[in-house]
């Protein structure tokens, strides 16, 4: 193994953002230090063929060969166009879109995005998409504080105090 490859591995082990690359770079580095593949497999809790596979991938493609490869299968429903509409929608209030509510819920967001895109995501997938994009959601707290009349509140507090005083006077005079 060349010195620049060793330096690349030593840099990737503590610094690479991808955990799978850090683990696989550690395996390759241990092999380079003369450890037996079965010992490396045991220490990293993987199978022996996995160690050989990582070694081949590193030899063929370097550090990038240790990264996860794209998975096969059906592409996700939430493509770039969907995500663009998703983000635009979250930047707007539902009231701006002429809905009779002011807070997005996951179900309401699913319904709206289905109308806009023709694609239906499950509620759990939409929650995952919210989390991936660093959006936070929780049940809204309804607050009527802005509707309170301060003068009426003060009058009610004064009346409450008078009633408390009257009740304590009644209790003390009846107990004698």
Structural write-up:
This protein is mainly α. Among the domains are: 3-66; 80-132. Helix content is 61%, strand content 0%. It has helices spanning 3-15, 19-32, 37-44, 48-61, 80-90, 106-117, 123-132, 150-174. The radius of gyration is 32 Å and the shape is elongated. The termini are far apart. The model has no long low-confidence stretch (mean pLDDT 88).
Tag the structure with descriptive keywords.
8 helices; 176 residues; mainly alpha; single chain
Rough shape? elongated
Low confidence ranges: none
Radius of gyration: 32 Å
Helix content: 55-70%
User: How many runs of DSSP E, i.e. beta strands?
Assistant: 0
Query: Which structural class do you get from the secondary structure elements?
Result: mainly alpha
Please describe the biggest sheet, giving its number of strands, its sense, and whether it closes into a barrel: none
Distance between the termini: 100 Å
Oligomeric status:
single chain
Percent of residues in β-strands: under 5%
> Average pLDDT value?
88
DSSP summary: helix tally: 8
SSE arrangement, N to C: HHHHHHHH
């Amino acid at each position: 193994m060349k010195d620049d490859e060793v330096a690349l591995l030593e840099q990737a082990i503590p610094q690479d953002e991808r955990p799978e690359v850090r683990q696989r770079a550690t395996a390759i580095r241990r092999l380079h230090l003369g450890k037996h593949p079965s010992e490396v497999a045991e220490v990293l809790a993987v199978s022996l063929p996995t160690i050989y596979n990582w070694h081949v991938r590193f030899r063929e493609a370097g550090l990038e060969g240790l990264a996860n490869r794209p998975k096969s299968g059906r592409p996700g429903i939430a493509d770039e166009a969907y995500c663009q509409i998703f983000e635009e929608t979250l930047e707007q209030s539902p009231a701006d879109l002429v809905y009779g509510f002011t807070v997005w819920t996951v179900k309401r967001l699913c319904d709206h995005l289905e109308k806009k895109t023709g694609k239906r995501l499950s509620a759990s997938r939409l929650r995952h998409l919210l989390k991936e994009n660093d959006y936070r959601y929780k049940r809204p707290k309804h607050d009527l504080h802005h509707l309170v009349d301060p003068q009426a509140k003060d009058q009610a507090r004064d009346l409450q105090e008078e009633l408390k005083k009257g009740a304590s006077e009644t209790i003390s005079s009846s107990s004698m």
